[in-house]
Amino acid sequence: MSSSSYAAWAKFDVEKELERVDETEHREDQEKQQLKQVHAKENVETSAFQAAQQSADVLAAQAAVAALKAKKRKKKEPGETLPKANDLLAIVKMFYKDVYLGIGTCDLEEGRLAAASEAFKEVLVRDDVHLAAWIKRGEAFERMDAPLLAMLHFNRVVSLDSDHESGKEALERVKAKLLTKGDSSFGTIRLLP
């Protein structure tokens, strides 16, 4: 054995090397675990979204079939026409709105505020004057502590229906919160003397 290899071996700290290897393995295990958790979360979110979408599609199809059966059962009078494609599309659109409103309401009750907001947005994309969706999305933003966004939604309700009592109450509640506490996303609002 040469003296240079012995000198190199003498400088080599086995304990430090074992600690370094252990730390590396521990770090790799943590990264793998985090990656597994991210994949699991993505899989759950994807499957939940697909299940909701499939439920909406199934309900819409069932509604269309039920509407066709109802029209078929009805005896056609002379001069009467068959249901138009627009009628069926309106039925499907109505069921999509109802399904997304139901999903959003469940998410809101369960405290999944961002998911609720997205579901209500789907209703509003299909019907921008749907008061219940505006109110519930405003409630979601209010619970997320985003009073400015909530105020915009409640203001839309009042502008669509000036006699809407719960819309007025919600708008006043959020305005009062903004005046007393400010908007949490921008810090507090300071009122000048």
Can you put this structure into words, describing what you see?
The protein is mostly helical and 193 residues long. It has a single domain, classed as Serine Threonine Protein Phosphatase 5, Tetratricopeptide repeat, CATH 1.25.40. The chain has helices at 3-11, 14-73, 85-110, 113-126, 131-143, 147-160, 165-181. The longest helix is centred in the N-terminal third of the chain and has 60 residues, at 14-73. The radius of gyration is 30 Å and the shape is elongated. It starts with a helix and ends in a 12-residue tail after the last helix. Mean pLDDT is 82; it is low at 188-193.
- Which stretches of 5+ consecutive residues score pLDDT under 50? 188-193
Can you say what the CATH homologous superfamily is? Tetratricopeptide repeat domain
Distance between the termini: 88 Å
The general outline is: elongated
Mean pLDDT: 82
Biggest beta-sheet profile: none
Keywords: Coiled coil
Coiled coil: 14-41
Ordered list of secondary-structure elements with their pairings:
Layout: H1 3-11, H2 14-73, H3 85-110, H4 113-126, H5 131-143, H6 147-160, H7 165-181
Coiled coil: 14-41
InterPro entries: TPR-like_helical_dom_sf
Keywords: Coiled coil
